[in-house]
Amino acid sequence: MNTGNQYFLSAILLLTSLVSGCASVPMASMDEDTKAKSFVVRDGKSNIYVYRNESFGGAIPITVALDGKVAGQSGPKTYFMFEVDPGSHEVSSIAENNSVLKLDTVSGKSYFVWQEVKMGLWMARSQLQQVDEEKGRNGVTECKRAQSNIPQ
């Protein structure tokens, strides 16, 4: 096999793993998942949900941060739920690129952020998009809760 064919085969294998593979990330307990999916917001708090409900790029875990603190990594069909004080917050998705979304949260309200995965040059890229509550709840319901390094 010549060198050109080897590179082509390697590229095809990498592309296949990006599209169909499945990253394993630490998961929260079933009780934590169920509680977060009740979508209840405690008095004086706001909830921020960051979800990744697609399988594309599943072999690549993507780092999620809140206010500059790494929460962990998302995988396909996973989400994070952060209970925060109302005010300004910054959600980051760190992959081949850095996607940053700023939110100004209000007490008693939930905010939903879709972590879209895209094809990158060397690895997966991501884009954070704030979505409405109906779309966000549906997206979170399709997923399982990832374990966060940020204490709640």
What's the arrangement of secondary structure elements?
Layout: H1 3-20, H2 30-36, E1 46-52, E2 62-66, E3 69-74, E4 78-84, E5 87-94, E6 98-105, E7 110-118, E8 125-131, H3 133-141, E9 144-145
Parallel strand pairs: 1-7, 4-9
Antiparallel strand pairs: 1-4, 2-3, 2-5, 5-6, 7-8
Topology as a string of helices (H) and strands (E) = HHEEEEEEEEHE
Sequence stretches where pLDDT stays below 50 over 5 or more residues? 5-21
Oligomer: single chain
Q: How far apart are the termini?
A: 55 Å
Strand content: 35-45%
How many domains in all?
1
Please tell me the overall pLDDT.
87
Largest sheet properties: 5 strands, mixed
How many distinct helices?
3
Shape, principal axes of CA atoms? globular
Structural class: alpha+beta
How much is the radius of gyration in Å? 17 Å
How many strand segments? Answer: 9
Helix content: 10-25%
